[in-house]
Design goal:
The chain is built from 16 helices and 18 strands. The chain is an alpha/beta fold. It has three domains: about 15-150, Rossmann fold, CATH 3.40.50.1390; about 180-300, Putative Large Serine Recombinase, Chain B, Domain 2 (Hect, E3 ligase catalytic domain fold, Alpha-Beta Complex); about 310-520, no CATH class. Helix 2 links the parallel strand 1 (about 20-25) and strand 2. The radius of gyration is 29 Å and the shape is globular.
């Protein structure tokens, strides 16, 4: 008789192999509240995956401030698909079909593609697991509903806006520079309006938008957000009819592909004369407009005010450490040799004001290549230590406080509704009602301000962490660079500060500042 011996599992590597599970999150706007929701989703999935002993955490992928109707505009989703194809992810968790995709075709295409390489998806809200499905019928129905819901919400919203356009009840919530807005009513903000009048005066005198921007900088005028003035910003103000007191509605629209387009006659527009108090006269506006259009024609500017330039890797990313101006690309010839230089704009226009010397493009490229090779060589000591430090920053207390604030705000809204009901029934004196409502409004404003500060702190750290993870993923096992890579520069570098001709500081998108010596050729 044959003897059969049972061999028990040895507990070796094969039996201990875990399923690599990742999560995908998305919020459709980039407001602080929505990003807070995103952080909570990330915390939830990370804890869920790590709690399962049969699963191995394979990462969190998230898109923020991006529509769910088109997969091509969601870089994190596309990165996750690529990682699935390379075997880094075997299962995906996501909140719902609408978070994954609101387009039926895209949803089914992605599901079939992932199933073809052995990757399953679990949709929490609908309780759909593509690994257990016998057919695609349920998924097709549910994703169609998600797409229909997206289109319906969009159309209903657009109909409501158009209706308010037509009957004159639409209230503009954001005022242009020079105005404030309250309940849809524009009021002149004199500390800004004086600079608007200055722009129109200088434009009528023949100054270019770029020249006006330089004058504003010299006079220490600032934009509403405290940024520097640019020619395009000045040009936009000079072309905005709202400064005459008029208002043109529906300058842009969203097409059936959910793409924002300028309205060049494809949709109705609604013009409201004398909508608010003007900052400049219509005559001044028309005259400045004619001069600006003449400048645009001479310099071959596009209609929407953006100048056509070939995009170079360093454009707008090199800052003078002496005066703060950006560097400009120039071509220089020495005999039969031709080479590219980057020079400080302020030095070119006012050499006595800034003494920063120009740098050859090849010198900057070599400095970046050297810096990247140092990161590849010593990523454990530099990048991973930095990531560990960021991870030690615990946002749990901040998130807990945000939840407390949201609950308090909900209670205040309920309190306001109760007061209104009591007042309507005549049980509360108007003076007492107004006092209670004002007290609640003040308390709510204080809480909302605290919440916004906490949100900004969390979101800033989130973005830096993701940027750091991306550069670690690249440098981990990567070969040393033998030449400048423009794609890597754009991917990892926020800007360069030129300290001197011998020293550059690269500020990475993850927040790391790295100084690199240059070797002049």
């Amino acid at each position: 008789m044959k003897k059969i011996t049972k061999i028990e599992p040895s507990g070796g590597r094969a039996s201990q192999q875990k399923l690599r599970v990742a999560a995908y999150c998305r919020v459709s706007t980039d407001t602080d509240i929505q990003l807070g929701s995103l952080e909570m989703q990330k915390t939830h999935y990370e804890a869920l995956i790590n709690a399962n002993p049969e699963w191995e955490f394979a990462g969190l992928y998230y898109d923020e401030g991006i529509t769910g109707t088109k997969k091509e505009v969601r870089p994190a989703l596309m990165k996750m698909i690529a990682d699935c194809e390379e075997g880094r992810v075997q299962r995906i968790l996501t909140k719902s079909l609408s978070r994954f995709s609101r387009n039926t075709t895209d949803c089914l295409e992605l599901v079939r593609k992932l199933l073809g390489i052995g990757v399953t998806i679990y949709f929490e809200k609908e309780n759909i697991d593509t690994g257990d499905m016998e057919s695609e019928l349920l998924l097709t129905v549910m994703s169609s509903l998600a797409e229909s819901e997206s289109v319906s919400i969009s159309e209903n919203s657009k109909w409501g806006v158009r209706h308010r356009f037509e009957n004159g009840t639409y209230k503009i919530s954001v005022a242009p520079y020079g105005y404030t807005v309250k309940d849809g009513v524009f009021q002149i903000r004199e500390e800004e309006a004086k600079w608007v009048r200055f722009m129109f005066k200088e434009a009528i005198a023949g100054k270019s938008a770029y020249g006006i921007a330089k004058e504003l900088q010299a006079m220490d005028a600032r934009t509403r957000k405290g940024a520097k003035w640019s020619g395009s910003t000045v040009r936009t103000i000079l072309q905005n009819e709202k400064y005459t007191g008029d208002c043109l509605l529906q300058k842009t629209y969203t097409d059936f592909k959910f793409k924002r387009c300028y309205n060049n006659g494809e949709r109705d527009q609604f013009f409201i004369a004398d909508h608010h108090e003007p900052v400049v006269s219509r005559e001044e506006f028309e005259l400045a407009g004619r001069i600006i259009r003449q400048h645009a024609a001479e310099k071959k500017l596009e209609e929407q005010g953006e100048k056509y330039l070939s995009r170079y890797p360093f454009s707008g990313k090199i800052v003078c450490g002496q005066c703060g101006s950006t560097f400009k690309r120039r071509t220089q010839c020495t005999g039969s040799q031709k080479y590219i230089l980057w020079a400080c704009r302020e030095h070119l226009e006012h050499p006595k004001e800034c003494s920063m010397k120009a740098l050859r493009e090849s010198v900057i490229e070599d400095a970046f290549t050297t810096m990247m090779n140092k990161l590849i060589f010593a990523q454990d000591q530099i990048l991973k230590n930095l990531l560990d430090g960021i991870r030690r920053q615990n946002h749990a207390s901040n998130l807990g406080r945000i939840n407390e604030i949201e609950k308090s705000l909900d209670d205040m809204r309920d309190r306001k509704n109760t007061l209104t009901t009591i007042m309507a029934k005549g049980y509360l004196e108007p003076a007492s009602y107004n006092k209670e409502m004002n007290d609640l409004a003040g308390a709510a404003a204080t809480l909302e301000k605290e919440r916004d500060v906490l949100m900004k702190q969390i979101n800033g750290d989130m973005k830096k962490t993701e940027a750091l993870r991306e550069i670690i993923a690249y440098t981990d096992g990567s070969d040393m660079l033998s030449a400048f890579d423009a794609e890597l520069f754009d991917r990892f570098v926020d800007h360069i500060t030129v300290i001197s001709k011998e020293s550059l500081v690269f500020t990475l998108k993850c927040g790391l500042n790295l100084e690199e010596r240059t070797y002049t050729k």
